[in-house]
Amino acid sequence: MQHVTIPPGSGSAVQAGATALTSEQQEKWDRDGYLILPQFFGTDIVDPINGLIERLSHRSARSNEMAGRVVVDLLAGSAHRRMRLADAPDEAFERPVKFNDLFLECEVIRNCNLHPRLVPILDELLDGPPVVCNSLNFIQGSEQTEHIDSWFMPPPAPEKMVVTSVCLEDVHPEAGPLFYLPGSQKIPPYIFSNGTIRAIPAEMDKCHAYLDKAIAEREIGRETFLGRKGDVFIWSCQIAHGGTPIKDPKRTRKSLVTHYWRANDMARHKLEGESGGYYFAKDHQPVPSDPAWKRLADRAWLEARWAGRLVKRAVVRPAH
């Protein structure tokens, strides 16, 4: 496996006229659809995230107020369940689980996924400032089947989404490491009956058959990423990837996965700026147990907040 190293830097942005990526790195991205940044983050960034997840996993150590907002997905077995963290049973955190959108709550998450050294790299890959639109914290491997991210969250502009996975510990081969198919991002996307690339559950068998055929015709091989603590894996939203089976259930694979859209394609009053990038100032996702009236009320309140931010941006303050 070829590791492409981006040298550490102390500045918060790339100097004028400079680029965050070398020509070799850009060529690799265009060809293979991914980059690996070995030892990109140190313990000063990684350890606080691990500490946060440890606290959130224990009822006595976490804030009840925050637990009432944060949404988790219980991934064990075939019947995945989504619920508020406050409602998750204590034993859930001993099996595959996913914490959604902690960037909305925690500075230690944004310190990582909008780090001043990472933002210029994402800016170059997206041709514009990155926006954190989704973050996922895993304790174990995802064991997710082969998929393409744009099926589930297509970006506002075609192909303008990149994804990072930060290793929060060394990855063991039996912990269900990430797999990916280099070059698969060049396969023309499958178009569903709605005329878009957004997945329709009833059509996924046909979609997977299309992808499998295209991969076989191009003789694209599967590779596995055995990252070290602090490594960052960046991939294109069109590359096929997933999680290998967990062979040893006692082993963890702690990671922070972040999806980024491009700020140029979004309304600025819905964004919050940080370190040269942005994050989507949205609400936490609804859960199935939420009554319809709550979903409608939450959405109305979010729209009102966005409207207030739009008005605030439109106000021209007189010069003094």
The Rg value, from CA coordinates, equals 20 Å
| Portion in beta strands | 15-25%
**What structural class do you assign from the helix and strand content?**
alpha+beta
CATH superfamily: q2cbj1_9rhob like domain
What is the ordering of alpha helices and beta strands?
A: HEHHEEEHHEEEHEEEEEEH
What is the CATH C-level name?
Mainly Beta
- Domain count, please report it: 1
How can the largest sheet be summarized? 10 strands, mixed
Determine the CATH topology. Answer: Jelly Rolls
- The first-to-last residue Cα distance is 59 Å
| Fraction in helix | 25-40%
The average pLDDT value, as a whole number, equals 91
Strands, count:
13
Shape by Cα distribution: globular
Could you characterize the architecture of this molecule?
By secondary structure, the protein is α+β, with helices and mostly antiparallel strands. The chain has a single domain, classed as Jelly Rolls. 25% of the residues lie in helices and 19% in strands. The strands form 2 sheets. Strands 1, 2, 3, 4, 5, 6, 9, 11, 12 and 13 form a 10-stranded mixed beta sheet that branches. The protein has a 3-stranded antiparallel beta sheet with strand order 8-7-10, with no helix packed on it. Helix 2 packs across helix 4 (107-113).
What's the topology here?
Elements: H1 23-32, E1 34-37, H2 43-56, H3 64-67, E2 71-74, E3 81-84, E4 97-100, H4 107-113, H5 119-126, E5 130-138, E6 162-167, E7 178-180, H6 204-218, E8 223-225, E9 232-236, E10 241-243, E11 255-262, E12 271-274, E13 277-280, H7 292-314
Parallel strand pairs: 5-13
Antiparallel strand pairs: 1-9, 2-3, 2-4, 4-5, 5-11, 6-9, 6-11, 7-8, 7-10, 12-13
Helix pairs in contact: 2-4
